[in-house]
Amino acid sequence: MTKAGTAPGGPSPLARGVRIGLGGRGAKQEEKRRRLIDAAAAVIGRHGYAGCSIDRITAKARVAHGAFYLHFRSQQELFDSIVPTLYSEMLRRIAEAISEATDFREVERQGFRANLKFSIDRPHINRVLWEAELYAPYAYRTYMDHVLDRYTASLRRSKANGSLAGFDDHELRFLAIMLIGARTQLTRSIARLDAVSSDDFEAICAIYDKLVAGLARNPSAASREPARTRKAGRTAPRPRARKEATG
User: Fold this and answer.
1) CB count in 10 Å sphere of residue 65
2) What is the pLDDT of residues 43-87, one digit of tens each?
3) Number of domains composing the chain
4) Would you say 72 and 82 are in contact if contact means Cβ atoms under 8 Å apart?
5) Burial class (CB in 10 A: 0-12, 13-18, 19+), 139
6) What is the domain-level CATH number for residue 198?
7) Residue 46 lies inside a defined structural domain of this protein
8) Alpha-carbon dihedral 167, 169, 171, 175, rounded to 10 degrees
9) CA–CA separation, 118 and 91 (whole Å)
């Protein structure tokens, strides 16, 4: 079992999440490997990583206990494969959803909808990600860094096309961290509900859209302008010079 906090040997977790296993395998073997990953994710969603034993995984996947080691060298290697496998799929769904969008607000709107739907359809994956920081730290850090890089690059494109203004280049990475945090916490909380109706889904998306609509404006200019002057047809009065107090 790989020591927590150290990088396991071989390819990165993201690479291992989509590779064809430990050698040249056919589609049948790859399908069985994916079943083990999905089974482990479901077990973690119910029992956590601490309760995710190989016995439980193989029983859930309907795979012989000994066959587990034909696909993974250890339980830790399986743990390191879960986050990149499941969340690479989520990132693909988001990329498909925003493929036609270029405007910052539309990118955020469609990306969040895809993100939220994926989490609601697979509520167990939220626990998979949150506990991965302790049980698969290298895979977790690699994935989060990858997401942050992608998100920052998307914000740079929005800034370049003029749909996101008021932020300096060095601020975009911090903005990405804030938006990722908002999305992660919101989708996690919503996915834990017993049921989310279509009306609830649309209401949640509308609230998020209001958030990004504010960011789509020029926040630095808005923050400099007094609130009482932000009305159509009005300009901000020039401040009067203060007189020096005389002793």
Assistant:
1) 11
2) 999 999 999 999 999 999 999 999 999 999 999 999 999 999 999
3) 1
4) no
5) buried
6) 1.10.357.10
7) yes
8) 80
9) 10
